[in-house]
Amino acid sequence: MEKKKKETSRISQYLVWPVYFAAAAAVMNAILFFVDRNAGFTALPFTLSFALAAAFLSVYQKKRVYPEILSMAADNAQIQNRILTGLPVPYGLMDDTGRILWGNERLRQLLNLERNSTKPLWDAVTEVKAKDFPLSEGQPYVRHTCLGEENYRLEIESIQMPKEMVSVDILGLRNDQGGLYTVYLFDETEQMRYAKDREDEKMVVGLIYLDNYDEVLESIEEVRRSLLVALIDRKINRYVARMNGLIKKLDKDKYLALIKKKYVAGMKEGKFALLEDVKTVSIGNDMSVTISIGLGFGGDTYSKNYEYARAAIDMALGRGGDQAVIRERDNISYYGGKSQQMEKNTRVKARVKAHALRELIENSENILIMGHSNGDVDSFGAGVGVFRIAATLGKRAHIVADTIDPQLRPMLNRIQSNLEAEDALIMSREKAVEMVDDNTLIVVVDVNRPSYTECPDILKKSGNVVVVDHHRQMAEQVENALLSYVEPYASSTCELVAEILQYVDEEVKITSSEADLMYAGIVVDTNNFVSKTGVRTFEAAAFLRRCGADVVRVRKLLRDNMDDYKARAAAVSQAEIFEQAYAISVCQAEGLNSPTVVGAQAANELLNIVGVKASFVLTEYNGVIYVSARSIDEVNVQVIMEKFGGGGHMTIAGAQIRDCSIQDAKELIKETVSKMVEEGDI
After folding, report:
1. Rounded Cα distance, 205 and 2, in Å
2. Which of 75, 212, 270, 584 has the CB geometry, 3.0–4.6 Å to 616, for a possible disulfide?
3. DSSP-derived pairing of the beta strands 465-469 and 440-445
4. Structure confidence by residue, pLDDT tens digits, 545-559
């Protein structure tokens, strides 16, 4: 009311001004009479006329002007109110407590706000967080939300209030803060739909390889081979045709497929049914056909998508085949991989890799050999084999290690005693970092993940890297390796190195101590030739026996002390069986020299219990929980361990869990296994 009175007094002042001018004119006319009577009489009619007009305007017309001015102001206010209230863009004002002070009809409908509602905005829009307010000046607050079936972009901006208004309680604002914000909601449903349609129409490159094409054909009669190939082609073509894709046969066992991205979600949901469907092809073949699938998309060009597909199929083959790998830029996901990879009878690949390794060693000045952290028998055994190759070729080599298992120390001391005084077998990580340069060749054994190596820093200082491993490859791997020999079918890295030794050079002769350590590596990783043992495993063992490996010495090397034996027995006796098929236990690390090794042995022991399909033993060591997972043949423990960032083989795998208690880790493993069993992943 005070404001309206003030505005009315201003209008009255404007209407009185003509009266003031009329009075001034009368004074001027009186002065003219004193100066010149004739001039005064001449100006008098004009002065009287002006005075009468001013009086008429201020007295008579004032009653008509006021209503017209007020009517115009009211109309203007109604128009503004109608525009804001009926504005199709949801709009409103909010204080710093989240309360909507005023909102047009569209905003209140979307947020289900009643009149005088005190509900804060973040109760209606969960994407908005109360902790983000008050906002900093000049920083718009943008969030995307879904209201009903529509998508909106929410924008909140701070309003700069005049100083004279801050101290007044305006619109219910608190006097001490006085924060006021505009709230806008912009409908982006159509925009997002078009973006999704555009994304769905993008091309996905797929590569499909038959893993065991030659082996399957050799297992059936020659007259049936063409029929088998035709049946396989038919299943692959039908699978791609259901997605309106294009399929082209590149080679006898390789296919190129082009599909739209919108079908990838269905392929994931169906867990790539083609993997299992192809296995049903049977016309007398002794073994099932398995395939590998690699999909690539997310690149800026078609050629980039093809590169992603090539990387994905290489990853699938490197992990043993019979699985699908999807690569979207740097994101990699795996599906399938439930069957064991078949051992290749041919040694052509081993011979080619051996010759390539010899050439790389001859062209390098220094050789650094590195396994995984907390190296085991297989890691050191493979390292000693590569050390012998380098020594035979006249190159100085060292195995990088800071901590050595006391069980292995006597064997390594025996090997060191047979070397020259200046030839140190073991080198610390600190010295290795100082030594490495552009002419240093780094040979990584028994691991293919940089973060798991003994000294990841030296990988960054030299681009000359060779990888020899028998674990399945993960998304994280040594990049741009000059030579990569990763064979998941192999029982151990010692088996691969033993084959390389036979082809790299005829003059390479390993000592009996070195043969003992390599033989021990095979024994440990195969659990005394019980797990993952093939023809080539026994051939490698026979080669090492001919080189002087002694079974009795190896058995003595691998004997347990009393503390390790008691800890292993305790872990087995305290095992818990869940889902009627999975054993889980904890191995206490206190007082043990190699707690992770004891945990792995306990996991192997649990498989001897009737009904146990897989075992998991957790060992807490140096603030990290090490998980040893084992199975016989029914469960792929590798895919389980991959859920925790680990990996390994179908029957032997492991993982490291950080920032977690033993009990929480046990529950996490149980939940993961139960979920994977329910979804059919294992």
Report:
1. 74
2. 584
3. parallel
4. 999 899 898 888 888
